[in-house]
Amino acid sequence: MKDRTTLVCSDYKGLSIRKQCEVLEVPRSSLYYKPKGENEINLKLMGIMDRHLTDHPTEGVVSMVYLLTGLGFVVGPKRIRRLFRLMGRETLYRRKNLTKSGLREYIRPYLLRNLKIERPNQVWVTDITYIPMQKGFMFLTAVMDVYSRRILSWGISNSQDAKWCKQVIEEAIRENGKPEIVNSDQGSQYTSALWINYLEGLDIKVSMDGKGRALDNVYIERFWKSIKYDYIYLNPSEDGYDLLKGVKWYIEYYNQKVHHTTREKPGERYYGPTRKAA
């Protein structure tokens, strides 16, 4: 999210917020932050589960019941399943039915296996993650260039709809050009007509993680772990605007630090020696 979000003024009488967003090319979804109402105990449970699942993404409902009851909470599988759905969490294991997350006709094969990624904009990956706050929660989505590990665009919302995800990748394409491949999981946002028709209409190849394959989208999973342990868990946000400011600061820092995987700064690796990172 760029600095132009700060130019939108809710008290300005000359233009509505909708019109200001159109002029500034800012997705309105990035400006509204109304956390969903959940009681304090459920928020605490989701926070504990999010920390644990960040390190152990293959554990599911039964494991969470054991974990939480061991900590003194009275919970059962039905409650944990509901909280999983609320968090957008899905246990990573193989299933017989591969169509529940989205429509079969919009599911695409995984294209990154054994692919040598050797240039910017060859492969982008995207995903959504749950973000705990002091009195609620939000969702964060991001688009990453795999070659450089640079975060190209991102957004925060209180929902996980396909329109929001499309707005974020539209911003990435508008500011960086289009990639050859975009990889995601098989979530309903990405197995929708809105998502697939937009990308394939631009002649972009769509790749999707195999069900139950925890490592297929490992690049952005590593970023989620970094931002949560380095910032989110240490600085729980009071509200959406506080979260927006903090995430913006962290992503700018992340794009300019040397990564152990590439030995370079993502911004410099993405733009190369002849272009200055934005």
UniProtKB/TrEMBL annotation:
One MF term in GO for this entry?
nucleic acid binding
List residues of the Integrase catalytic domain. Answer: 116-274
Which regions span the lipid bilayer?
Answer: 60-77
Show the InterPro entries listed in the entry: Integrase_cat-core, RNaseH-like_sf, RNaseH_sf, Transpos_IS3, Transposase_IS3/IS150/IS904
Q: What's the domain of life for this entry?
A: Bacteria
* Cited Gene3D superfamilies: Ribonuclease H-like superfamily/Ribonuclease H
- For this UniProt record, give its keywords in alphabetical order, as a comma-separated list: Membrane, Transmembrane, Transmembrane helix
Q: Is this entry keyworded Mitochondrion?
A: no
Task: Give me any GO biological process, just one.
Answer: DNA integration
Keyword Transcription included in the entry's annotation: no
This protein's name: Transposase
Q: Native species of this protein?
A: Belliella baltica (strain DSM 15883 / CIP 108006 / LMG 21964 / BA134)
